[in-house]
From TrEMBL, chains A, B:
GO terms for molecular function: acetate CoA-transferase activity; acetyl-CoA hydrolase activity. Residues 15-213 form the Acetyl-CoA hydrolase/transferase N-terminal domain. This is Acetyl-CoA hydrolase/transferase family protein. Residues 321-465 form the Acetyl-CoA hydrolase/transferase C-terminal domain. GO terms for biological process: acetate metabolic process; acetyl-CoA metabolic process. The active site is at E290 (5-glutamyl coenzyme a thioester intermediate). The keyword Hydrolase applies. The keyword Hydrolase applies.
C-alpha cells in the first residue's frame, strides 16, 4: 500500500504506520471493536478485511460496534467468517440478517442516539480497539473523518487503543466538513449549544490522546455506492400525499413555506418521497438528518435545500462522482456531526423537525413496526427512527400499502413488533392517502387509517376485524385471538388475504 | 363564598370576581377547556362542579384537557354528567375508565411532555377557557398556582379566556415555590437553561395577559388526599432488589453514592419502592420527578433527599397536614415546574435520571405495557413514563410478578399493548428479583427475565413458550398464534395458568 506520510501532519506518529495484517494481528478473542462507518459510508475497511483473512486460520470472536450498517460487504464477510459474538447498533445486510435470525450471532438493536451514551457510561463493554477511517491526522493530533462520523468520536475517546485507516483516495478537501462535539457526562453536562441546522459547535476533527494510537494503516478502498431504486408510481403518489399534507399545514398556519428542518430515513421509499419535494412549492428548505441520500443533493442542485446536516453521506455511484468531484460547490451547504448529535432528542425537539421514516407495517391504531418481518425476523434495525419520531414536531411514517404483490398488507390489526407506539406517530402515508392521527383517540384513528391508507383489497378484511373488536369494547378494541391472524394466515397460506372476505366484498 | 380581595393584588381585576355558577354559564357546547390539576393536586374545582350542575338541566359537551388526573372525584362526576367529548392527556378514575372503555367518550393518551407542545403548535383545538386554581394574582398580573403546575402555563398563555379560582384555604406561603418557564416556538427556541435539579430558570408565577381574564372565583376546596397503601412484603422485596441493583452500579463505578436525580412514578408500588431507600446507604439524594408522593417527604425527613423538583405534590391526608403545616421547613428543598419541563427529554437526558415506573405487565423480551389491561381496556394512561424511560440514564420498571391472587402473570410472552419498547427498558424488577437488560440481545433478555423475575408458578409455562419460539427462530422468537395465549386463557378460564404445564413441573 502506497504511504502518504503527508496525511499524518504530526510526524511523531509516522513510526506507527503498519500493514493492515499487522494491525489485525493485535486483536484477540473476546475483544470489543468500535468501527467507523454509517450506512455504507466512511467505514474502516482494511483492518476488518484483514481480520476476516485471519479467521481462515484461527478461531476467535469479537464484538463489533459501529455507527450503523457497514458497506463494502463488510457486515456480510464478518458474519460469514463466524467471528462475531455481538453486533450493535444497526446492520442492513442480507447474510448477516440470516445469521442473526438463525441465532448464529447476537444483535442488539438500539436507538442510534443511545450507543455513545452507553459507551460513555460504561454500560457496554469498553472498546478495546477503535478502528476508524480518516482523511488525515492534523498536527495537533486530531483525526479527520471521511464520509461519515457515526459513533467514531465516542469510540476513539473511550477506547483503550486506536487504529487509524488513512484513506488516500478520500480527498483532503473533506477537512472542514465535520463538526465534532461530545457532551460531557450526564449530570455535569451543559446544554448542547446548537439552535440551527447550520450551527457549528465543535472541532473539525476528533481530538484524541495520540498515545492511544497503536497503528496507522494506509488504504484506498472507496465507499460502496448505494443501489439506485428510481421512484416508481407508488412512491410518487406517496410523495404527492405527503406534499398535500404539508400544504394543509402551511394553510393552517402551522408551518411556513420553508417548512421545518427535514429528516428522512434510509431506504428507497424515504429517498423517493424526499425526491418528490423537487416539484413542490416549498423553498429554502433545510435538512437535519442522519443520512444524506441522493435526493438531498438533487434538492440542493434544484435550489430547494440550502443546508444539510447529517452524520453520513450515502450516495449512488453517479452521485458520488458528482458530489465528491465538486466538493467546493457543496462544502458550505453541508456539515457532518456525530450521530449522537444528529439524533439527539434535545436538538430534534428544539428544532421541531419534520421526520419521515419508512415502516415495514403499521396497525389500525397507529403503532409502527420498523424492524421485524412477521414479528420475529430482524430486517435492519430501528436505526434513528425512534430518536426522530418521538421528538419531532411531525413524526411521519410512509410505506406502500401492500408488499410482495399483495400477499402482505402493510396495515394489520396489530403490528407483530412495536418500535413506535401509538403515542409517537403523527401521520401515516401510503400510496392510497394519508391519515393525520394527531389528537385522535384510537377508535378515531382506526376509522381514518382504514379509510385513507389501506389497499382496497384489504379494506373489508380490516373493517371486519375492527367491527368485531368494537363488540368487545375498550379504549383500543381488539380481538386478541385474531390480532395476529393476518400474520398467521401469511405463514399458512402464503397470503394475508382471506378468501371469504374477498368474495364477500 | 367569602371573598378575599387581598389575594388579588392587581386591584383593577377586583371587578372580575364572580360566582362559580356565573363563570360556568359562559361555557358553550363544543368548547375546549384547559383545567389546572395534576394527579389530584391543584385542580380547578368550583367551576367544573358548577358545570356539572348545569348539565342536569342542559345538554352540551366539551373537551377537557388537564395536566394529568383530577382529584375531588372531578373526573368521575364530569364523566357521569355525560358532558365530555374528548379527555386528554391522562386520567385515573374508575368511573371515567369505565366510560372510556365503553366508548362513551374519547380519551387521548399522550406523553405528558407533549401536550403543551401540541397546544403551542396549534395541533389541538385552541383552549376556549383555561380554568386554573391559584393562591393569588400578583400586582404585575402573574397567577400563582397552588399545589401543581401541570399544563397550566401553556393553557393560560394560549387560551382565548381565563378563569382563575383563588383558593383561600391554600396558604400564601406557596408563593415562591414555583418556577414557571415556557420554551419558545420550536425552531426559535434556545436551550432550556436548567442543568441541575434545583436550578430556577423562570418566574414565580404565570405571567398572563390580564385582558384575557374573564372571571375570578373564590373557593375553599382542599385537594383530595391520596389513599395510603402501606408497603407490603412484596414491595419491600422489590425495594431490596432495586437497592441491590443500584449498589452494584455504585460498585461498578457507574454511579456514586448519591446516585443520580431520581424520578418515581405514580401508584402504590413506585411509592413503596422509593420508601425503601430510607434504610439504604445512599445519601444526598435529589429528586427530579413529576409527582412527589409521601415517600419523597419521608426521605426528606430522614435526611436522605436534599432537593425535590416536580410539577405536582400528591399526598395522603396525614402527610398533607405535615407538609402544608410546616411549609417553611420544606420550602427551600422544593420547586414546582410545568410538566413540560419536569418531563422534557432535553432535561431528562442531560441530568441522567434514574427513573422508576410501574408496569402493568412486561414480556420476556422487555417490552412494557403501562396502560391497557389485557391489551384493550385503559387503566390510567402512559403519563410521563415514556418521557422518562426513553431519556433516563436508567429506565427501571417495577411490578409484582403476579396479580389477582396469581390468576395473572405480570410477565407474559408478548405484552398485549406496547407503551415502552424493548429499546427503552433497561431494568425490570419484581419481588422475585431484577433483570438488567442493558446491552443484551432479545434471546439473552428472555433467559434472564424468566430466571430472575417470573413467579415460580409461571416459570415452566413461559419456558415452554420460549423453547417452542426458539424452534421457529428469529431475532425475537415468537409463536405468533400463541403470543397472546396467556391473555386469552385468562379471558376464557379466569386464569393465565395452564393445568398441564403446572402438573408437568
Ligand atoms: C422499513 C425498511 C426496511 C424499508 O426499506 P425500503 O427499502 O424503504 O422499503 P421497501 O418497500 O423496498 O421494503 C424492503 C423490503 O421489505 C419488504 N416488506 C415491505 N413491507 C413488508 C411487510 N409489511 N412485511 C414483510 N416484508 C415487507 C419489501 O417487500 C422489500 O422486500 P425485498 O427486499 O425482498 O424486495 C427500512 O426503511 C428500515 O430498515 N427502516 C428502519 C430504520 C429506520 O427507519 N431508520 C431511519 C433513520 S435512518
Ligand atoms: C401501572 C399502574 C396502573 C400500577 O398502579 P399501582 O397502583 O402502582 O399498582 P397495583 O399493583 O396496585 O395495580 C393496580 C391495579 O392493576 C391490577 N393489575 C396489576 N397488574 C395487572 C395485569 N398484568 N393485568 C391486569 N391487571 C393488573 C392490580 O391487580 C390492581 O387492581 P385493583 O386496583 O383492582 O387492585 C400505574 O402505575 C400507572 O397507571 N402507570 C402508568 C403511568 C405512569 O407510569 N406514570 C409515571 C409517571 S407519573
Amino acid at each position: 500500500m502506497e504511504k502518504n506520510l503527508e496525511r499524518i501532519k504530526d510526524s511523531s506518529l509516522h513510526d506507527l504506520v503498519v500493514q493492515a495484517e499487522n494491525a489485525a494481528s493485535w486483536i484477540r478473542d473476546g475483544m470489543t471493536l468500535g468501527l467507523s462507518g454509517f450506512t455504507r459510508a466512511g467505514d474502516a475497511k482494511a483492518v476488518p478485511f484483514a481480520l476476516v483473512e485471519r479467521a481462515k486460520k484461527e478461531k476467535f470472536k469479537v464484538n463489533i460496534f459501529t455507527g450503523a450498517s457497514l458497506g463494502s460487504d463488510l457486515d456480510k464477510v464478518l458474519s460469514e467468517a463466524g467471528i462475531i459474538n455481538k453486533r450493535l447498533p444497526f446492520q442492513a445486510d442480507a447474510t448477516m440478517r440470516k445469521n442473526i435470525n438463525a441465532g448464529n450471532h447476537l444483535f442488539v438493536d438500539q436507538h442510534l442516539s443511545h450507543t455513545a451514551e452507553m459507551i460513555r457510561n460504561g454500560v457496554l463493554p469498553q472498546i478495546d480497539f477503535a478502528i476508524v477511517e480518516a482523511v488525515s491526522i492534523t498536527a495537533d493530533g486530531m483525526i479527520i473523518p471521511t464520509t461519515s462520523v457515526g459513533n467514531s468520536l465516542a469510540f476513539v475517546t473511550h477506547a483503550k487503543n486506536i487504529i487509524v485507516e488513512i484513506n488516500v483516495d478520500q480527498s483532503e478537501q473533506l477537512e472542514g466538513l465535520h463538526d465534532l462535539y461530545e457532551p460531557a457526562e450526564q449530570g455535569r453536562r451543559l446544554p448542547i449549544p446548537l439552535t440551527k441546522a447550520d450551527d457549528r459547535i465543535g472541532t473539525v476533527g476528533m481530538p484524541v490522546d495520540t498515545d492511544k494510537i497503536r497503528g496507522i494503516v494506509f488504504t484506498k478502498y472507496m465507499d460502496s455506492p448505494s443501489p439506485i431504486v428510481p421512484p416508481d408510481h407508488e412512491t410518487e403518489e406517496m410523495a404527492q400525499h405527503l406534499i398535500s399534507f404539508l400544504r394543509e399545514e402551511v394553510h393552517a398556519g402551522r408551518l411556513s413555506n420553508n417548512l421545518a428542518p427535514l429528516q428522512a430515513g434510509i431506504g428507497s421509499v424515504a429517498n423517493a418521497v424526499l425526491h418528490g419535494l423537487i416539484d413542490s412549492e416549498f423553498e429554502d428548505l433545510q435538512v437535519y438528518s442522519e443520512v444524506l441520500q441522493d435526493s438531498v443533493f438533487e434538492l440542493i442542485d434544484a435550489g430547494k435545500v440550502n443546508f444539510a446536516s447529517a452524520c453520513s453521506i450515502t450516495l449512488s455511484e453517479e452521485m458520488m462522482k458528482q458530489v465528491y468531484g465538486n466538493l467546493e460547490k457543496y462544502r458550505d451547504k453541508l456539515v457532518l456531526r456525530p450521530q449522537e448529535i444528529t439524533n439527539h432528542p434535545e436538538i430534534i425537539r428544539r428544532l421541531g423537525l419534520i421526520s419521515i421514516n419508512t415502516a415495514l407495517e403499521f396497525d389500525i391504531y397507529g403503532n409502527v413496526n420498523s424492524t421485524h418481518v412477521s414479528g420475529t425476523k430482524m430486517m435492519n434495525g430501528i436505526g434513528g427512527s425512534g430518536d426522530f419520531a418521538r421528538n419531532a414536531k411531525l413524526a411521519i411514517f410512509v410505506t406502500k400499502s401492500i408488499a410482495k404483490g399483495g400477499n402482505i398488507s402493510s396495515i394489520v390489526p396489530f403490528v407483530a413488533h412495536v418500535d413506535h407506539t401509538e403515542h409517537d406517530v403523527d401521520v401515516v402515508v401510503t400510496e392510497q392517502g394519508y391519515a393525520d392521527l394527531r389528537g385522535l383517540a384510537p377508535r378515531e384513528r382506526a376509522q381514518l387509517i382504514i379509510n385513507n391508507c389501506v389497499h382496497p383489497m384489504y379494506k373489508a378484511q380490516l373493517r371486519q376485524y375492527f367491527e368485531e373488536a368494537l363488540t368487545r369494547g375498550g379504549q383500543t378494541p381488539h380481538v386478541l385471538e385474531k390480532a395476529f391472524s393476518f400474520h398467521t394466515n401469511l405463514a399458512k397460506n402464503g397470503t394475508m388475504l382471506v378468501e371469504e372476505v374477498k368474495s364477500y366484498v
